[in-house]
């Protein structure tokens, strides 16, 4: 069937023609911090059917928002990456996150992907005016490196990240650590997350985040 649009001259309707299909914006979210293989995108969207993900990737590629690339040898794996137009949807995700956190009914126990958590932290962080804090994360199979500084929290996806602080766990476990009320040391003791490095520095890092 032909894909339906709104058939309006309104610019908001035009934007929704491009990213308004179910799952489309969340597919872009999963690529916001770096290219990914199909399987890793699928892992970040456990509710999406494989054929629907395939269709969304085709639609977004046709719209010029992402592109399929082949990594150089020895990997030569096929990955999907955002184009500049796709990356420019980041403020839309930020606005939705900042609006959503003010609305009742949010259930933090539901699945949150590692990339979704990193992005929410970047949208909700309180700037650190003291010395910057460099932090590494390994969330499942996804590694990230980030800095918390005067410009806020800036994460990137990168292999084998190294930093004075290294959090290990999964998206939901780290979300409970970052946004929950319990002290970091207690969460580490409970096994919710593992931390390599100074827990005092880790607590100072965690204190810059709140759901507000």
Can you give a write-up of this model?
By secondary structure, the protein is α+β, with helices and mostly antiparallel strands. It folds into 2 domains: 11-87, Arc Repressor Mutant, subunit A; 114-206, 2-Layer Sandwich (Nonspecific Lipid-transfer Protein, Chain A). It is 40% helix and 18% strand. The strands form 2 sheets. Strands 5-4-3-6-7 form a 5-stranded mixed β-sheet, with helices on one face. Strands 1-2 form a two-stranded antiparallel sheet. Helix 7 (114-124) runs parallel beside helix 8 (171-179). The radius of gyration is 18 Å and the shape is globular. The termini are far apart. The model has no long low-confidence stretch (mean pLDDT 94).
How would you concisely characterize the structure shown here?
The chain has 212 residues and is α+β, with helices and mostly antiparallel strands. It is built from ten helices and seven strands.
How would you name the CATH homologous superfamily of the largest domain? SCP2 sterol-binding domain
Domain count = 2
Total strand count, please?
Answer: 7
Indicate the CATH class of the largest domain. Answer: Alpha Beta
**Residues in helix, %:** 40-55%
Structural class: alpha+beta
Total of helices: 10
Under CATH, the topology of the largest domain is which? Nonspecific Lipid-transfer Protein, Chain A
The mean pLDDT is 94
**Straight-line N-to-C gap:** 43 Å
How would you sum up the major sheet?
5 strands, mixed
Beta fraction: 15-25%
Shape: globular
Strand order within the widest beta sheet: 5-4-3-6-7
CATH architecture of the largest domain: 2-Layer Sandwich
Q: Report the radius of gyration as a whole number of Å.
A: 18 Å
Helix and strand pattern: HHHHEEHHHEEEEHHEH
Q: Any low-confidence stretches, pLDDT <50, length ≥5?
A: none
